[in-house]
Every structure is written in C-alpha cells, then in structure tokens.
Amino acid sequence: MKKKRKRAADHLVSNLDLIYCFAAVLGIEMMFRGFLGFPVLAAEPFLYDLGLAGLICSLLFLMGRKTRTVFSTLILLFLGALALAQVLHYRYFTTFFSFSKASILQEFFTVKSEAGGKLSWDLIVFVIPGLLAPLFLLIRRRVRYSGLLRIGVFVLTTLFCVFNMLTTVSTYPDAELKTESEAYLYQSLYNKVRAAEQFGFYAYTLRDARQTLLPEPVSEIPPEELIAQYLEENAYQQPVNEYTGIFEGKNLILILCESLSPVVIREDLTPTLYRLSQEGINFTNHYAPVYQSATADSEFISLTSMVPSITSGPIAYDHTGNTFPLTLPKLLNAKGYTSNSFHSFEGSFYNRNILHESYGFEHLYDWNEFEFDKREQFIDAYNWMLDKDLMRQTVEKTMELESRPFFDFVITVSGHIPYDRYRYELETDLWYTRQVLGDFEENYSTEVISFYAAQRTLEQGLYTLIEQLELAGELENTVIALYGDHYPYGLTETAQKEVFGDLEEEYMIYKTPFIIWTPGMEGVQVDKVTSTYDILPTLANLFGLDLNGELIIGTDGLSDQPGLVIFEDSSWLTDQAYYDSTRREVTRIDESISDQKIRQINEQVIETLNIGQAILDTDYFAGDNGHAQTEE
Predict the structure, then answer these.
(1) Which residues, including other chains, have CB under 8 Å from residue 365's CB and lie 6 or more apart?
(2) What is the DSSP string of 271-288?
(3) What is the structure's pLDDT at 211?
(4) Per residue in 295-350, pLDDT tens?
(5) What are φ and ψ of residue 565, in 5° steps?
(6) How far is CA 369 from CA 144, 239, 341, 347, 498, in A?
(7) % of residues, the chain, pLDDT over 90
(8) pLDDT of 614 over the 60 cut
C-alpha cells in the first residue's frame, strides 16, 4: 500500500505542471467572466472548457519536460493576452473584436496611445498564469513515461475531449425565430457579447476563428437571390412632403464631427454650434451606432445608407474594391455637382484615398495637401490639426476649383482622443473652456475639461467656415449639415460618468447631434428617433434626389415614416421601444407596442444585417446589378 501511495505521489508530482495548466485554462475563462460581470460558473461554458483544457494538456503530455513547459507558458500567455485584449476592447466599444478585424490592426498601431485610457493594473492578472508556468521546471520529474503510453493517453484523451466539446455545442437549442435560437446565435455570433457570455470565452473565440477562416452561408439560397428578393420587398418609397426639394441646387457641406455629443452644445461654450441647433433643423433624438471601425463606418453609413461590414473584415480594408452605385456624392454628381472630401489627417488612414473615390468624390484633400502648422513637439496621433484650419483651407480650395454647385464632405479630427491638457494645439480652447466650466479639478476633472476643449475646437472651425463662406459670397447659397460620428468612447469610465451623469437608459450614450442649417431658415426641432442611416435619405429629399426603388436602410427624418436605429449587436431602437439583444430585454417607450411587433422587428433587424453583409461579400452592385441613374 505504501508503495502504491508513493507511486501515485510520484505520478502527481511529475504532472503538476499539467494539472496547473488545466486549472489555469479554466481560471482565465473565470477571470474573463468575472471582469465582465458574467456568471463565473455557468454549465455550458464550463463543460466546453473542461474539454478544451483536457485537449491542451493531452497535447502537452506528448512532450518532454522542457518543451512542454515552453509550450504551456506560450499557450497560457496567448490565452491570457487574448482575454485581456477582449476586456480592453469591451471597455471601449461594449462588444468584442473578431479575428475578421485583423486587417484593422495597422490603424491601432498608428493610434496605439488610445488604449492607455482603458488600461488598469488589475488586467495584469490575465498574464500571471503564463508567467508562473516556468516555475514548474524547478520540480524534478519522478516518473518517465514511454512513448507508446504517451501516444495512447493522447489519443484517448483527445477523442474524449473533442467529443465533449462537439456534444456541448450540438445541444444548443434551435428555434423558428433566429433571435430566439441559441443554435443560430452560436452559428452566426450576431451578438458577440451574448455569445461569449452564453457559450464561454473559448467557445466564442474558436467559433469566431472558424467563421473567419471558413465562413458559412447564412442560408442555402444563393445570396444574390436573397438580396434580389429583399430588394423587391423592401425597395425604398421616397416620401413627398413640405421639405421636398427646398434646397435643390444649393451647395452642400456635410461635416462629420469627431466624437461630438449633444452635451457640448451650450450657448456659453459653443455659441456657433448652439446657434445652428436653434436656427436650423435639429434632430434631437439622433443616434450613431458604432460598428467595427467606428468613424470609417459612420462615413460609409451616412454616404450610402447601407449596412457596413460586421462579420467579415471592415469596409476600409476588405471591401475597398466594391462598387457603391448609390452614394450621396454620386447622386449629387448626377445633378451637376462637383464633389470633394477634406480631412486633416493622412488619406491612407482607413484607406480613405481609395474608398472616397469609390464613393464618387473627385479628390480627397488630406493633410499632405494642406499647409498645417506643426510645431517641433508635434506627435502623430496625439496632436491633431485644428478644425478652424481645416475649414479655412476647405473653403479656399473649393473657391479655387470654381465649380458650382459643390458638395464638400469634411471630416474633422480635433475632437479626437486623447483628452490631455498637454496637447499644445488646445492651448487657446483650454483657456476659454476653463473660463466657462471652471479650472482643472474645480468642477470637472482635467480629462473632462480637456474633452470639452477638444470639442470647442469644432466651434472655432464652424465659426471660421461660416465667416469664410460669407467672405466668398457663397454663404446664402450653401447648406451646412453636421453630425457626430460616434459617442466619445475614448473617455475613461469615470469621465463618462462626469459628462453624461446617470443616463435613464444605456443606449442614450449613443445619442449624437444631426443639424442642417442655411441662413434665413426658421428653426425646426425633430424629436422622432433618427440615426446615421437616415442622413442620406433626409438630405436626398431636401435636395430633390430620387431614391425610389433603391436599397436604402434609413428613412427621411423629416417624414412621418417610423425611425429605426440598428446597432451592431442586433439591438434596436424606435420611438416605441428599445430592444437589448444582449440581455434580450425590451424597454417600452410606448406601452401599446405588442410582443408580436417586437419579435417582427427583431427578425427584420437580423435580416437587414445579413443582407447588408451579403451585399458587401458578393459585391452585389458590380456589373449588372449596378444602377445607371447615378452615372447620368
């Protein structure tokens, strides 16, 4: 008996590193769930993780002492780093990244300083399991196993673990409605957060990797047939109302405002912006849903009213060669406009120099073509070009082109993170902001004061734009439309609390301004729900552009058509209700909305997102499916 106990103890000591690795794999999942507020011990993830941990350890069992220590260390560091990255991504965007977004990593390294705002020391726990693994080299192995035994254990354990994992995922229940089907959620990962919570970090990660490498069709019907059928059933019916064509023939300047939120529209801090909101058409219940590549996707949605890429790579990298026949610049070009875009950053970022040509712009003027003031201490992606300089040079360049009417699409950047008092270009705006809001740490934190100062630069830009247009004699014949690309996700959690306070509902953080103004008009306040998808159809109606029969996701914000905000995770918002796809909870704004109507919208949203993705993946509008009306 004593020999058996000693033999058992020797086996135990010889495999302590495997036991540790097994526990560490499970531990990383538990830490991941704990950080995100998920139930730490849930049956489905736990069963799947047992299989994965066993599979990893059976592979390590094949290796020698030093080799398996190296591999177990690398595996644990990789899993820990991946979990850490997902938690960090969630803190920014309240969702998880997909391997399909790998192409956007180059932009992360351009603006890598952004990640610092969400980093905290507690995240280091994710790499501790990997850092501790090499310590097991100090324990001398007491039992050596034959190669045949190793292979036998590996084969039997692998078969058992793979069977366990496959059985777990195959038992997810299906349902007729996609939004009520766990099997469809696992297959499509249409809601990444709910999938990660329900199936586990590892199950989500491996499914996402498979989906990226070996994408599966969402239907047995060819996607082109699905798209054609969807278009036939959902072709846009353009409303005619009192606003139809009132700006026809006027110049248009559409401004994408970096991280602009309604909270900064104040008469004392941003008087020009406040004036435009009072005198123009002000959409007070407007939302900017955030997709894979935030700003680039907002550009795409506002110019096309199409769904950006969600399950495959971002528009800016994986679909730059696509054909986009129905865009705002192409529609205006067909009416005799000259369309150009202007941005005070490098044109290669988000491949804008390629994409904007696909959208129909004649030229993208980036910072290489403007004369911007860069001091010696200028730091790329930390210091930004002032919006007033961008606006001044936009007007100068437009006047040089001597082409009327014109459409200018302007992408601002001053309001971008980091919100740091030491950004030298904020000196004047910081001083003014402190006069209005109080000094640093007096009423607001330094970060929040810096955020307001960064948005104050947009105010200076708008003032300059109006001033320059008036000097050029074009102000009376020009419409200025502006919108926020996304909420200021770069603020730390504490700063967000300062800026937004206690929101009645979480979705309200996505509220951004959308304002249309021209001199002499009477102010109009629109309280219905609108989104970035509605910008194109709203402007099209105002400028007399024909969208009838086209594939448009949004609606005219000035019509009586119901608004619908579609979020990346298939959540949605209307004037009647908000559906949280992650929690599967409904917040009724209008108690009269029925459960049947909610289920109907749920399925409509899923279908719309799937069709949008299929259009991009198949480049549907290339060739025979293109539209000739925009090329007249």
Answers:
(1) 340, 341, 342, 343, 393, 394, 397
(2) HHHHHHHHHSEEETTEE-
(3) 87
(4) 999 999 999 999 999 888 889 888 988 999 999 999 999 999 999 999 999 999 99
(5) -95, 125
(6) 69, 41, 12, 10, 39
(7) 75
(8) yes
Tell me the whole-structure pTM to 2 decimals: 0.91
E runs forming strands in 569-621: 572-573, 577-580, 585-588
Give the bridge partners for 516, in sequence order: 281, 481
For residues 462 and 272, give the distance between their C-alpha atoms in angstroms, rounded to a whole number: 7
Q: What are phi and psi of 577, to 5 degrees?
A: -165, 160
Query: Could you tell me the pLDDT band of residue 369, with boundaries at 50, 70 and 90?
Result: confident
CA angle in degrees (0–180, nearest 5) for 499-500-501? 105
Tokens of 276: 């435009």
Task: Indicate the pairing of strand 577-580 with strand 406-411.
Answer: unpaired
Q: What angle do CA 169, 201, 617 make, to 5 degrees?
A: 75
364 pLDDT more than 80: yes
In the sheet with 478-484, reading across from the earlier edge strand, the strands are 364-365, 338-343, 406-411, 251-257, 478-484, 514-517, 281-283, 524-526
Residue 60 CB neighbour total at 10 angstroms? 20
The helix or strand, by DSSP H or E, that contains position 514, with its residue range, turns out to be: strand 514-517
Token pair recorded at residue 294 = 């935030």
On the question of pLDDT at 256 being above 90, the answer is: yes
Structure tokens at 535: 């910008």
Q: How far apart are CA 604 and CA 598, in angstroms?
A: 10
Q: Is the pLDDT of residue 108 over 60?
A: no
Q: For residue 522, what are the CA distances in angstroms to 55, 91, 250, 276, 482?
A: 69, 41, 17, 11, 17
Confidence check: pLDDT of 116 > 80: no
Per-residue confidence (pLDDT) for residue 103, from 0 to 100: 65
- Assigned token pair, 600: 């109907």
For residues 455 and 614, what is the distance between their CA atoms, to the nearest angstrom? 37
